[in-house]
Amino acid sequence: MVGKGIKRAEGFFWLALGGSICFVAGRTGIGVVKEPGPGFIALAAGLFMAGVGVIMILAGFIAERSVNHKVGPGRLLGLDSSARVIYTLGLLFVYAFLLGRLGHILTTVLVMWGLFYDWEKKNYAVSLLLSVLVAGISYLFFEKLLMVQFPRGIWP
Amino acid sequence: MGVDLFSSIIYGFSIALQPSNLLFCFIGVFLGTLVGVLPGIGPVGTIALLLPLTFKLSPVTGIIMLAGIYYGSMYGGSTTSILINIPGETSSVVTCLDGYQMALQGRAGPALGIAAFGSFIAGTIGLVGLVLVANPLADLAVKFGPAEYFSILCLGLLALTFLSQGSVLRGLAMASLGIFLSLMGQDLVTGTIRFSFGVSQLEGGLDLVPVMMGLFGISEVLLNVEKLRDERHIVRTEIKNLLPSKSDWRQSAVPIVRGTLLGFLLGTLPGGGAILASFFSYTMEKKFSKHPETFGQGAIEGVAAPESANNSASSAAFIPLFSLGIPGTMTMAILLGAFIIHGVQPGPLLLAQHPEIFWGTVASMYVGNALLLVLNLPLIGIWVKLLKVPYKTLFPLILFFCLVGAYSASTDTSGVYMMLIFGVIGYVLRKLSYELAPLILAFVLGPMFERNLRQALIISDGSPMVFLTHPISLGALILCLLFLLSAILPSLRRKREAAMRG
User: I need a surface site. Which of B182, B323, B346, B411 has the fewest CB within 10 A?
Assistant: First the structure.
């Protein structure tokens, strides 16, 4: 039953997204067939997507239960192993947030320290050393060699 | 014709052998082998990752490097398949079956050797085919109008969706999402800003680089981060006799030729590419073999054929891109993006407008194949050592390259945020078994798709019959219809899914 439920939920998602795309496409202006407007292709894409959604919903109603489908949404999303993923993603967003404020070097050291940090070995010193190394090399390679202009942040 | 072709090839080599091009060709194939060897990041992610670095290079040098990454990864992928039973690339999955068994039997050397030689031979033949086919196809494509292009684009997109693993319905949904995402920003006909939802950063449209880096680089790392505790077991065997024996050659020669030809044919098809080629060639060899029971037990033909097929297919995959401007695979879609970023439009006019890029890239692929042979055989010890680098050390570096790449492409943190958002989207989609190939191909082809459809309708005064009265367009649309029907009809769908499972 879960498999059918997922298929139907997917179908409703694509139906809703397709419908929304049709709506915004209509507001942008679809023009006429003789002279298609800026929303014309988006409308077609939205209708197609909504159609796929409808087929998925119907398939969900008639689908037979199979071994592959006997998994819940939690298993599909791998929630049991998500802590490290969330931690990693969090650090990446922190990088984007701090880059303009602290500058490239300091942000790189902080974020890479967190990324290199091994949860099992608790290697504070080694991970800090590695992060400083990466920041230094990236400064020389990107800023000095390739002339990429990074935000200077708190540095003058 | 013969003299012209010969002088064009010489011209290509004169470009490919320029010191800077040779250097970046080497960097490309080296990085390609590296990412092929290291499970965890593929050629698509790497090309997306390194694309910003090519901005400072000339178009021909940049393309030579990116192409080198692509076919280099085909070579490198076999090493991990043979030594640790983990394919570095999807196209090397079948190489695991016999390659790893050969390694367990103490024959890792001949397995690696025949994979490298087979790849070299196939790559070389594939390039000859590329030169012979791309030119006439480009001449034919000059006569194509918007109706033909629109229908061929539809066919390419549907074929890729159909031939990708996973559900076709999901693939179709992803393709339509890709088309929509590609439309964000300014409409080139009317100048209207569309689908920006009030976000100023979206008014210029979604940049290809952060989208690809997010979908492939970030999502791939996040998926691997979940499995950090997994350890790789490298076969403890001395790697010797890399040069295959006479007996090995006798067994492998015909499979290499068959794999090359099949790979070339499948590589030219939209949605074909190296993955299908390697799977089909393995199946074909098993059927042709007098001893099919040895397959899966360490048969050298089971390594030679798929490795030749995937390399030949990777050369052939350039044909639709160079001659029609239509990428048949995901990697080619990203290369198309790279061409456009460098101000070059691949297609029928590429040869006339940028002969240095066409011939230079083709010649560099031959040079690159020779470099790969040098890299793969004597340096195999280094690649084996690299396999021992823990992923815990690698993934922060990959992520850092993504962050720096996204920033340098946009010189703004908005590019970084965009990449991260698409990273999350890609991660969730891949966890839910959605294939990203249709989305990215549709995203890259979207503007061409729209331009050709609108032009065709304007020229025909709004008559949709324009797509049915042109024979090539009609043929492509009939094939599209067949693909769509096969996705909907349950019996056809089940057959396809069974074929995909092998």
Answer: B411
